[in-house]
Amino acid sequence: MLSLDLASELSSLGSAPDLLRLLAVPVFGWAAWLDIRTRRVPNQTWLPLLVLGVLTLAWEGWLVYTGSTMTYVNEARFLFRVLFSVGFIVPLAYGFWWLGGFGGADAKGLITLALLFPTYPTYFLPTMAFPQVVPTLGVFSMTVLSNTVVIGIAYPFVLMVRNALGGHVGKAMFVGRPITWDAATEEYGRLLENPDGFTRGGLDLDALRMYLRWRGVTLAEVRENPDHYRDPTTLPEDPNPAGDGSIPVTDGGKSVKEERSTPDADGLAERRDRAVIPEFETADDPWGAEAFLDDIPGTAYGTSAEELRGGLEVLTTEDTVWLTPGVPFLVPMFVGLVVSLVYGDVLYALIGTMGF
């Protein structure tokens, strides 16, 4: 009897597909937290949600076909919204990823939303229904995307206020924040400086960590003797695996990755003193930047030899550098999802207040 009462109470809150879709909220919250902490989200995060999306979409389609939905929607509207969500949002997410505007996890998160929330869910409380603002288009994934963009736009203004209050005023104050040179290996983002000054194409700090690990040195060691490390003939004969540039998760204050893969001090010193292998011997390759990029698999997040050299020059000469952390896109996406479920389409409401 209790289970039947519970089922009846839940059914009064919303349709079964819409209630199941709420399971995505804590998962997106967890993904957003990972995006802040490590800038990496496991691929396994999205697969259960994609399966849930297929299940709820088929279930909702059956309810529409049989006329059993709690809100009025005909088959044509339902089909249009599904086709729009999958046919527009999915290619858009893939296109932004292909152009480099999205990370892989960002694109997968948006694709998941397109499949999981093609139509507007509806949740009922005794005195009101949610979401409260529903646009005419009625494609919920589009609402989440627009809310994500609106929330993301606020980020530069938050940075500006933070920098202004700290007395850090300059061209980069809208897109970055200052850090000390020794914090560069403990941050995610991209430098906004090269030897010529401000730039939007500075060194990616993931690539910096890959380079330092590849050479088997720390940034402090490089900064202490930059002329030595600028000479490509000092490159190791047998470089370390570069890894992916992530900041290792610590266990008791010591990196688990370092315990497993970093050579001991004697072995590391021995490797640094070896003669460089022939293909790395080039006087036209300061810092061994080209040798590094040629030796590793992949592209070090699109880093060029010039960007790597410029970043190293800045980090070995400046005490404070400007960093753009970028916007961990899954964070505004999670907030946008919550706002969409509770309030609805913010941009649509703003346009409505202006009389359009």
How many structural domains? 2
Largest sheet: 3 strands, antiparallel
**Uncertain spans:** 250-278
What is the string of SSEs from the N terminus onward? Answer: HHHHHHEEHEEEEHHHEEHHHHEHH
Radius of gyration: 25 Å
Number of helices: 16
Proportion in helices: 40-55%
Q: Overall pLDDT, averaged?
A: 84
Amino- and carboxy-terminal Cα gap: 52 Å
**SSE class:** mainly alpha
Shape: elongated
In the CATH hierarchy, what is the architecture of the largest domain at level 2?
Up-down Bundle
Which fold name fills CATH's third level, the topology of the largest domain? Four Helix Bundle (Hemerythrin (Met), subunit A)
The number of distinct β-strands equals: 9
Strand content: 5-15%
Can you tell me the CATH class of the largest domain?
Mainly Alpha
Q: Taking strands numbered 1, 2, ... along the chain, how are they ordered across the largest sheet?
A: 3-9-4
Provide keyphrases for this structure.
Preflagellin_Peptidase, 54% helix, two-stranded antiparallel ribbon, Prepilin peptidase, 9 strands, mainly alpha, transmembrane, Four Helix Bundle (Hemerythrin (Met), subunit A), cell membrane, 356 residues
Gist?
By secondary structure, this protein is mostly helical. The protein contains 16 helices and nine strands.
